Amino acid sequence: xxxxxxxxxxxxxxxxxxxxxxxxxxxxxxxxxxxxxxxxxxxxxxxxxxxxxxxxxxxxxxxxxxxxxxxxxxxxxxxxxxxxxxxxxxxxxxxxxxxxxxxxxxxxxxxxxxxxxxxxxxxxxxxxxxxxxxxxxxxxxxxxxxxxxxxxxxxxxxxxxxxxxxxxxxxxxxxxxxxxxxxxxxxxxxxxxxxxxxxxxxxxxxxxxxxxxxxxxxxxxxxxxxxxxxxxxxxxxxxxxxxxxxxxxxxxxxxxxxxxxxxxxxxxxxxxxxxxxxxxxxxxxxxxxxxxxxxxxxxxxxxxxxxxxxxxxxxxxxxxxxxxxxxxxxxxxxxxxxxxxxxxxxxxxxxxxxxxxxxxxxxxxxxxxxxxxxxxxxxxxxxxxxx
Length: 387
Known about the structure:
By secondary structure, the chain is of the alpha+beta class. The chain folds into two domains: 1-30; 44-383, TolB, C-terminal domain (Neuraminidase). 16% of the residues lie in helices and 36% in strands. Strands 1-24-23-22 form a four-stranded antiparallel sheet, with no helix packed on it. The chain has a four-stranded antiparallel sheet with strand order 2-3-4-5, with no helix packed on it. Strands 6-7-8-9 form a four-stranded antiparallel sheet, with no helix packed on it. The longest helix is centred in the N-terminal third of the chain and has 29 residues, at 2-30. The protein starts with a helix and ends with a strand. The relative contact order is 0.15.
C-alpha cells in the first residue's frame, strides 16, 4: 500500500508542480525585465588555499560607533581624526570618539531608494595636499570639502557633458601627492548607484571607467572605457600607474599615467577570489583590496553560476526586486593584501559575516585596518599586530 500511495503522491505532486509552473512561465515571459544581461566568461575561481586559506581573522575586529553611522563606505584620516561619507548623504568627522556632520552635498529626505539621487551618496573620499577632502558623490559629482568649515566646492558636476555623456555613477577617486590630478571612476553610463545590482547582473561594459581631472586646467579626460563596473581606484606609490578594480570581472586593470608606458594599460590581477570594491595602499608598499562578495572554491559561487546564463538572470529580475536578490548573496567578508606586483600576501576572512559584514574598503592607519561598509551601521577596526 505504501508504494501505491507514494506513487499517487508523486504523480499528484508533479501534476501540481506542472500546473503551477506552466502559467508561471507564461507570466514570466510576458513580464518586463529591467535588465538586458550579457553572458560573461569567468574562469573557475582560484582555490582558497595557501595565503587565501579561509580563516576567522576578521572576527578579531571591533565594531566602532555601532548604530551611529549609516553605511560608511570610504574612510580617511587627517592625523587621528577620521572622516567618512554615509548613506544618508553626510560627510562625517569623528574626533576623540565624537561624531559630527561637517557637510552634505545633497539634501534630505534620505533613507529610501527613491531619495538617493537628491540625498546624494558620498562614496570615495581622499585627503588632498592642503588637508582638504576630495569626495566622489555618486549622484552629484566630484567635490572638494573643507573639513574645518564644511564648505563644499564642486569640481566636476555629474551634469557636465564629457565626450557627449553625463556622469551617471561616480564611484571612487585617487589624488596625486601634489593635488594636481584626480583620477576617478564612473561605474556606468546607464545605471545609478541605487541600481548597482542591475549593473553587476547585466554585465555590460558601459562604464567610462577611468577619468582624469586636472585641478589647474579644470579639464576632464576619459582615459579608459569599455570595462565592466569600474569601482575602486588607487595610484601606485611611485604615481606611475593607477589601478582600477573591475568588479563584475573579479579583476584589477592597470593604466599607466607616466613613464615609458604612459597611456598604456594591462592586467594587474585577474580571476580574484571575490568581487573587488575599493583598493587602498598598504604600509608594506602593496594594496588592500576589500571584496564586496566572495567566489568560494571549493563551494558554490552564485555569481559564477549565473555569469553565462542570462535567461536565469532575466527570470530572477522579472520576479524579484533588487532588495530581495541581495538577501541571497552569502554574507562572507574578505580582505586581501596584494604585493606591489599583484601577488597575494595575506587574506583576512569572516565567513558568514559574524563580526564584519559587507566590507567595501580597508583603510590602514597607524597599525590598524579600518573597514568601511556600504551597508553596515558601523566601522570595524582590526589591530594588524594581532592577526
